[in-house]
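Researcher: Before we compare anything, I want clean individual predictions. No alignment, no superposition, just each chain on its own. First chain goes here; please echo the sequence and then give the structure tokens.
Model: Echoing the first chain and its structure:
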Amino acid sequence: MIVIMNNKAKDDEIKKVMGIVEGLGLEANLSRGGSFCVIGLVGDTSIIDGDKLMAIDGVEKVLKVQEPYKKANRLFKPENSIIDVNGNKIGGKNFAVMAGPCSVESEEQIIEVAKKVKESGANFLRGGAFKPRTSPYSFQGLELEGLNLLLKAKEATGLSIVTEIMSTDYIDVFEEKVDVIQVGARNMQNFDLLKQLGKTNKTILLKRGLSATFEEWIMSAEYIMAGGNENVVLCERGIRTFETYTRNTLDLSAIPVIKKLTHLPIIIDPSHAGGKWWLVEPMAKAAIVAGADGLMIEVHNDPVNALSDGAQSLKPEAFDDLMKKVKVLVELEEREL
């Protein structure tokens, strides 16, 4: 349920509505904009008498929200959320680029790639320290050593770190060392993990599950937000379909759908979607035009010998060429990189 106040509503009228709601044991979330004021009600709203709320001065409308997600719902917060990570903003008119190798392999590798992607214009360094692999015999990542190498790359470049968490066991370490905590597709519905991440104040990058519907994906974001952490960024990385030529199928419709249903930023990962390096550029450009708030691109200095996902990784030179085109499109869309 939401309560829409009219544009002449006074502060004491707004406080009165919130006081009534909170007095019934519900949560009242206030969202203000230039021409609106919305109070979102979270909890068992069946006990609320909408007619009584309508009788309060300043109240314009009382609407029931049909969707199961509340805090992520655009009805609760009409303006776009903008997430600030060390001065780098995601959402609104801001466009973010997260780039780096699939896996952190060595100090030399991660620092070299970090310097290259920064020179090209990326504002976040992505890199996997803990790797969820389909095969138990595949490279599983350097784990805590990998995190420390990411920190060295951050010290060398100033880029904020984006890396994936696999378990609740590492939340304290990630809170201390990581700027953006990524929840991978396979963990999208790891509800224990989502609940714990809701207790942090770190930005969470939530990837869409392999076969997740939009509602399932948004509800996973709701788990995090319900815990108190509203710094959530969604990431479309392709879904599983009958097509086998590409690694996954990039669902570009996710961009306008997510923006219609929620106020959360959404970025696109064309690397995992296509699984082939030459698909990255066209899919990245399409994502920008469709309204994405950012890109996540895999970049490796030696893709042929990469320990994971070399086939979908761009060489630094190719990434630099892509970024020149990205900057043009971002400017045409009246965004800022």
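Researcher: Okay. Second chain, same rules.
Model: Second chain and its structure:
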Amino acid sequence: MKAIIIDDERKAQNLMEALLQQNCIEVNSILKASNLLEGIKIIKETQPDIVFLDIDMPQHSGLEILDFFDNQPIDFQIIFVTAYNQYAVEAFKLSAIDYLLKPVDVQELITAVNKAQHIIENKSINNQIRDLKQAFKQLAINKVALEIPKGIIFAAEDDILYFEADGMYTKVHLLNNRTELICKPLKHFVSQLESKVSFYKPHRSYLINLKHINELSKKDGFHLIMENNKSIPVSKDKKEEFMQIIAEVF
């Protein structure tokens, strides 16, 4: 079988290559790539049987691989490799897709390769990928996918205080004073969440969760005081609309 290792760490690439050479004789050809885009290119050119895919990579997380084959059949087996990503691992378990935790255990690697070979021989790869996509959808119910450099955080909607525009990026403010910088503009989250009762855009730079408002201040204009004591302005053209929402929701 032909395999490709996609990992941004050269040391991790070489270690996985050595483990395969020493313990998995059925893998007789090993290719390597240092990022997802390079890996996608090699996959399309060489058609490997197995893809060992790191999750935590800069620019594109390994979890995004499905986006690059959206309308194409996937004829290779994916084995995700991760230091630990709670929601990703949960999705893998739901779909029965294989994953390896770093540092990679030799016996688990052998088991994963044997399982991959069985799936390839029985031509059931696409069923497994379909199940993985469904698993991610299932996890995303009442959660928001936040793409960070190391992967994807699935944040519960109730844990989000507000979104704040930061140029072409968005700062997401969560409970427990946690903040994440997301590589998407605010309008992405507005289109995704503004139709929901609990989310409202009081200002061009903010999308708030109404559940986490502590106070409405009319000093020096309308301002909303959030649970983290952040003051968020309400635009002049939104004042009347916001007061109507308060009357309907609270």
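Researcher: What stands out in the second chain?
Model: The mean pLDDT is 87. Additionally, The first helix runs from residue 10 to 23.
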